[in-house]
Automatic annotation (TrEMBL):
It is found in: Cytoplasm. One of its GO terms (biological process) is phosphatidylinositol dephosphorylation. PROSITE patterns: PPASE_MYOTUBULARIN (PS51339). PANTHER family: MYOTUBULARIN-RELATED, MYOTUBULARIN-RELATED PROTEIN 12. Keywords: Cytoplasm. Residues 123-561 form the Myotubularin phosphatase domain. Belongs to the protein-tyrosine phosphatase family. Non-receptor class myotubularin subfamily. This is Myotubularin related protein 12. It comes from Phasianus colchicus. Signal peptide: none annotated. It comes from the Eukaryota.
Length: 666
């Protein structure tokens, strides 16, 4: 328990950005108010609401990053208790306006001292999309369009996106972007992954007939030999709903919101049954299986895949991202993965503001869709660590960044919302332009020593070809499957699109689409053959990666979910012990390199990148750099917030939060 009592040595600050507890000037911990999930008080752990008869003596704050803080307010002045309780209720429960978020206060005075080395492709220009088409060799059948400039087509679409060459600008304008196959990525064999937002289910007959004719033309012209089959998947019927995902995660996270040892050991007795009852790991398995099915269509069957969802901004983002991580080794680099998130999620229009419930307006819209993706990617990272340039620590801090209120990356529903809100506030206040920071500039949150934890020292970097081979070398998929990659037989007489289009269109216009449209040539167990065949071969870390999804292969992301529970850590064990020895070896190699340079140049070489000093690895916890040796004891090695960057911003950090009187909220 932390006893909150004002004196000369201890300082408990309640600020607009968060809560800081320091002793003798040393910050022990800090809590972003945007991270507060809920709070309970007193022995019965009643939920903290505005309906209070008396102010509590004990307070427990549960955070969205699963940290739990216990406060004893028995010796605190009543005015300060009132201020603390009112602030927590105000920031964790009361609906607020977007412009009232600390994001805008910070953006108006954001520092210009970032390192400027962020090379993540932001996909906010037409040139970025054309470069991506060229990189994936998709520019033969697809084109980048600027039809939505000024958001004249749809506020949900980005300014620039990619569509099949056959799609005209008039069609995009006429149907406001709905029913338009939007390109996500092209496979090495030419097959493409596309997504599409469905037409509204309830339409009058004339409108339905027009849309049917439009889709008929689209499906006919997408076919490019030898890819005659277009397979579609309505994710809303083949995957769990957003409500089911939210319910499962709510149950799942309760297993880790533990504030005392007694509760931990009580749940440990029935851990497996509790874990299974949440259904969270089963949802992860189903999502990974769906991604593998899509990979099979692209890789083995050489067919285009069209993902369909009501808005194409939730589960479409999850599946398209996973497919690219599995099939494109560039997406497994840190820069490539960040560019992928920008393309499919940030610019793609995922509603971060609603799904993360930043404004506390509607719990019905809340769903951990992006967190679901990170959980799925973590399964791949822990199964094939050498295939990824980043570590699980990178994924952990990325999940924490969802709620850091100084980055704009995860705080808007769409590019349109960000642009219009920003422009409106500037005109209204006549202030200077906002300088929104991107989360991809990791120097804002971490120094070089801490950033080293985000990079995988065992990453199997792709070797560069010899200069003599560069001209003749052609890109070829390195992974050969035991099943022959035979080309799908074309059969003009069968007339796939003529026979199947009507059935397809009826489903797309509001009825349920089957999981896949199966070709008569495709055996029913082809998925299992494809899956087992791949896993019977040696792994190519720069080729196709398929996760193992059977039984206990799907695991709990221990670092993220257990890092704040001291009882769950292994002293001197876990992956950190191995990482410590590797980093020690890297340090020795760097020192040897410096000595060699000194001998050759008779001078000390320049600065080198710092490597974390992890001496005496046996004394480290398995959950380092996040774990605490004891509850509320020391600050973790890796910072959990951005106070480092805010130290010089006195006006922002030291600004008290607006006091909210409970009587005004009743």
């Amino acid at each position: 328990w932390v006893y909150v009592k004002a004196d000369e040595s201890a300082c408990f600050k309640w600020l607009k950005l968060g809560i800081i507890l320091s002793i003798d000037g040393t910050v022990l911990f800090d809590i972003f108010l945007s991270l507060v999930d809920f709070a309970v008080y007193d022995e019965k752990k009643k939920l903290l609401t505005g309906q209070l008869r008396k102010y509590p003596e004990k307070l427990i704050i549960y955070c969205k990053d699963l940290r739990v803080f216990n406060f004893c307010l028995r010796y605190t002045k009543e005015e300060e208790v009132k201020r603390i309780v009112s602030g927590i209720i105000h920031h964790s429960q009361t609906p607020k306006l977007l412009k009232r978020l600390f994001l805008f206060s910070y953006a108006s005075a954001a520092p210009n001292n970032t390192d400027g080395r962020n090379q993540t492709v932001m996909f906010d220009t037409l040139e970025d999309w054309r470069d991506e088409l060229e990189r994936t060799k998709g520019n033969v059948q697809y084109k980048a369009v600027s039809t939505n400039e000024g958001y004249k087509v749809s506020e949900k679409l980005p300014l620039y996106f990619v569509v099949p060459i056959c799609v005209s600008e008039e069609s995009i304008l006429k149907y406001e972007g709905r029913g338009i196959p939007i390109w996500c990525w092209s496979c090495h064999n030419g097959a493409a992954l596309l997504k599409m937002s469905a037409f509204p289910k309830e339409q009058d007959d004339s409108t339905s007939q027009m849309q049917k004719a439009f889709l008929d033309g689209i499906y006919r012209t997408i076919r490019k030999p030898p890819y005659e089959l277009l397979k579609t998947d309505d994710l809303s019927s083949s995957l769990p709903s957003l409500q089911e995902i939210q319910t499962a995660y709510t149950r799942f996270k309760q297993l880790f919101l533990i504030d005392n040892s007694t509760d931990f050991w009580a749940t440990d007795v029935k851990w497996f049954s509790l874990l299974e009852s949440t259904n969270w790991l089963e949802i992860i398995r189903r999502v990974l299986k769906k991604a593998i099915e899509v990979v099979e269509c692209l890789e083995r069957q050489h067919t285009n895949v069209l993902l369909i969802e009501e808005t194409a901004t939730d589960l479409c983002c999850v599946i398209s991202s996973l497919v690219q991580v599995m099939m494109d080794s560039y997406s497994r680099t840190k820069l490539g993965f960040q560019s992928l998130i920008q393309k499919e999620w940030v610019i793609g229009g995922h509603g971060f503001l609603d799904r993360c419930n930043h404004l506390h307006k509607s719990d019905k819209e809340e769903a951990p869709v992006f967190l679901l993706l990170l959980n799925c990617v973590w399964q791949l990272v822990q199964q094939y660590p050498s295939a990824f340039e980043f570590t699980e620590t990178y994924l952990t801090v990325l999940s924490d960044s969802l709620y850091v209120p100084i980055f704009s990356t995860f705080f808007f529903n769409s590019q349109h919302q960000k642009d219009t809100t920003t422009t409106g506030e500037i005109l209204k206040t006549q202030s200077s332009p906002f300088r929104f920071l991107t989360v991809w500039d990791w120097s804002v949150q971490f120094d070089l020593k801490a950033q080293a934890f985000l990079n995988n020292p065992l990453y199997a970097e792709k070797p560069k070809p010899e200069k003599s081979q560069r001209k003749t070398a052609r890109f070829k998929h390195q992974r050969q499957l035991s099943l022959p990659l035979t080309q799908t037989k074309s059969s003009p007489k069968r007339g796939f699109f003529r026979e199947e289009t009507d059935h397809l269109i009826k489903n797309i216009l509001g009825k349920r689409i089957g999981k896949f449209i199966n070709s008569s040539d495709e055996p029913p167990n082809s998925f299992r053959e494809f899956y087992d065949s791949w896993h019977s071969k040696p792994v190519d870390y720069h080729g196709l990666l398929l996760p193992r999804i059977d039984g206990p292969e799907i695991k709990v992301w221990a670092q993220r979910y257990l890092r704040w529970i001291p009882e769950a850590q292994l002293h001197g064990g876990g992956t950190i012990a191995t990482a410590a020895k590797i980093l020690d070896l890297m340090e020795e190699v760097q020192n040897l390199q410096v000595k060699m340079d000194e001998e050759h140049s008779q001078a000390v070489s320049g600065d080198t990148h710092a490597v974390p000093m992890l001496r005496n690895s046996a004394r480290l916890s398995s959950l380092f750099p996040f774990a605490l040796l004891q509850r509320q004891s020391i600050k973790p090695a890796l910072p959990t917030s951005t106070w480092k960057d805010l130290e010089d911003e006195d006006d922002l950090v030291k600004r008290d939060d607006e006091f909210v009187d409970l009587s005004d909220m009743l």
